[in-house]
Amino acid sequence: MIDMKENSLKLFCILLFFCISVSAQRETAHWFFGVNAGLNFNTGTPIVLDAGQVNTLEGCSTISDANGALLFYTDGVTVWNRMHEIMPNGTDLIGSLSSTQSCIIIPNPANSNIYYIFTTDVVDSYDIISGQSNGFNYSIVDMTLSGGMGAVTMKNINLLPNTSEKVSAALSSDGNFWVITHRNNQFFSFKVTSAGVNTIPVVSNTAHSVPDYKNIRGNMKISPNGTKLAIVHTLFEPDQAGSLYLYDFDSTTGFVTNEDFLGDDLMFYGVEFSSNSTKLYASGKLFSGGNSFANMQLQQYDVTSTDVPNTKYIVYDYVQGLVISSLAGSLQLGMDKRIYHSLPGNRISTVNTPNLLGAACDFDFESVDLGLHFARFGLPAAVQSYYESIATIENFCFGDETTFAIASENDITGIDWNFGDPASGNNSMSSVISPTHTFSNAGSFTVTANVTFSNVPNQQFTEIVVIQETPTINSLFTIEQCDADDNDSDGLSIFNLQQAVAIIEEDNGNSNIDVLFFENITDAQMNENTLTNDFYANSVNEQILYARVFSYVDCFAITQVRLKVNSNTNLGLHTTIDVCELNGTSISVTQIEDTLENDFPGATIGIYNTRNDALLQNNQLTNFSPVNVNTNGELFFRVSYGTECGFIGSIEINIVGQPIIGDQEAFLCTGNGTSVELSFEENFASYVWSTNEITPAITVTETGVYTVTVSNSAGCEKQISYVVTEEPPLTIDRIEVADFQAVNTIKIVVADENDPENITYSINGGNSFSENNEFVNIYPGIYDIVVRRGECNAASETILVGGFPKFFTPNGDSFNDTWQLLQKEYYPNATIELYDRYGKNLNYIKADTEWDGTYKGARLPSGDYWYKLTLENGRIIKGNVTLKR
């Protein structure tokens, strides 16, 4: 997909012109590459395709029929038919998805149903010890099989035991094809004729050699006219480096000669010729010392020069860090005669007019959108001759005579033209080398020229010419602006010219037109001294600018744009507004707009950080825009009535925070008929539950997520989620009892508890609960321990806290007359030993008996006496008791 608004002066949608042998026309109409990326060039503008199955790091190839209908495509390993299904026998070709130019598809010159897939070598396939690899191979596709979907009949027929990751192809002078690959210091040219692939290559030896198989990466291309060959060597050993060479190619003999070294300043990777074969482009990484690479460059060379290396022009510098790989991406001509540059991402870049020298080649960074799919480092290889241009075409405006100027290195003896325009009444023309034609209407026309040569086979050339309408536009538009400063009557302000663009587009009914602005009519007519900034400060009130309106640069209309400044539009400080803060980083702009709309009914309100932004309608704030309220707590607003600026003013902002509360949770007890109340400790001004209730608390009987919007007294709202889940399992891990102490304690430990704050504990059977799991000063006795989560009783256990009375008074009043073990029935086999203060053993009794304070029948005096309790489990407890008379 092409972003027309970003490419206002481009010619790419105007002209398609390419060379084919005899009946071929649109073999390169489809591309499939990268990660499921696809483009269809049949309309003259590449359209995104979504069904592609290819997923390749680098090389690939696609072929369509003479009418531009997709036939099949491959990554050098798998072959997919036009329904994007794998062809029968279409797997395990021994190309590689990580080979620079892994494959290329060549038709049989005499049989439109037979195709040959040539696959190249890859660094990864080389055996370090033996030096053996996959080599250079070809496979055969027969399109008559599988119901016309095609099948691979033979595959991996070896032509060379070792080669490089490079392949290119072009027409031979006799109408057949040459397929060329490279290894070390040799080029191998294989001829494809009606008889098939000649397995004996034409071998050309060159001075430059690349012996290390680790350095076989990089692209190679034949020029579309079949006279030149360019090759890049992407070197990884012994250091990262690169080189670029240009050769002559003889399309009659297949020989490669006349080596011309162009440069080694980049780690070169991609290479391509322009469609008229006069310009050469190369991509590569630029080194900044050692093996570290910095920027990546796209370079241009003039192939027609007697000193090609010195014609180098840097088309574009990709900034450091934009591409992290050492591979600089492939270059490939398209059917529209643009050169495409592929790097990882969902957009690819273009050279829009590559036949032109220097900056006129018109590079567009990431100009083609691939939709949801991604490019990598490769683009589809094809016969380079399909892209040849031999015509210069001019005048594409409806009503003008379109001219076709033909130039060719071969001797033309005749041309039969068909302009694809029967409605013109002058659709065909013979024997005119460079004709003119006035097309009957605007639109796309397929023009064919059957060219007869005296020295080479006849060829058919096809071009798609897009005739453009000159926009019909009103002669005058007015845009109104508020005054820019405190001098509210000087008629001076700053205008956003994009506002004028929007008005002109609406009037024309076309959002794809382009608009350029000029200060005088002469500049507008000559397309000179364009105003390059969208923001323009007028010099007088109602100043006139001139707008050049066009879809195609030469088909334009000129209209006037009046810049009118409305006086008395500066409101100054208008009011103070309490505004809610959102998320701690922004404020509720909608709240400000709603307040101001009450003051300016029927108007459009925009809120801005600065007065200048309000004037230019630039950086308008939304609810979640970062808001920089200045030291005076001030923001600016613009009141618009249609396209007219009504007022500019400021407002003081008093920021009020949202309610401070987080999401909540509650547990619904297990069992039928249970419910839980959802409420808050905080009080709010209003509540709106997802159940439509507006009370501070609600009772629910089902699990789920309940939302409630609460607001404070300033009207600031916050939505809270209340998550209600079924009571999770809860078990008591252990109860730690410290009894027979001066101060007895109980500690309750719950197993695997992640939310201790929601757990409460009771030791008296559930009558009262505490959030503390430790209880102190516990009197000896039996205790029913209950633990619950929320309001749910989840776990319980009964425990015994042992102990003795701290004193007794054996005075015969029937109160505390004896001393005994409390809950003695739970200690049936325990024994007690009693001692006086000197350690004399006074008694030895069982725990289920009582002591009356006597020793051998004699009453003992008041004082402290000591005991030793031995429990059945062997536990020994020592302490003292006070006897009082």
From TrEMBL:
Top-level taxon: Bacteria
One Pfam entry name: CHU_C
Residue span, PKD domain: 401-452
NCBIfam families: Bac_Flav_CTERM
Protein's name according to its UniProt entry: PKD domain-containing protein
Native source organism of the sequence: Kordia antarctica
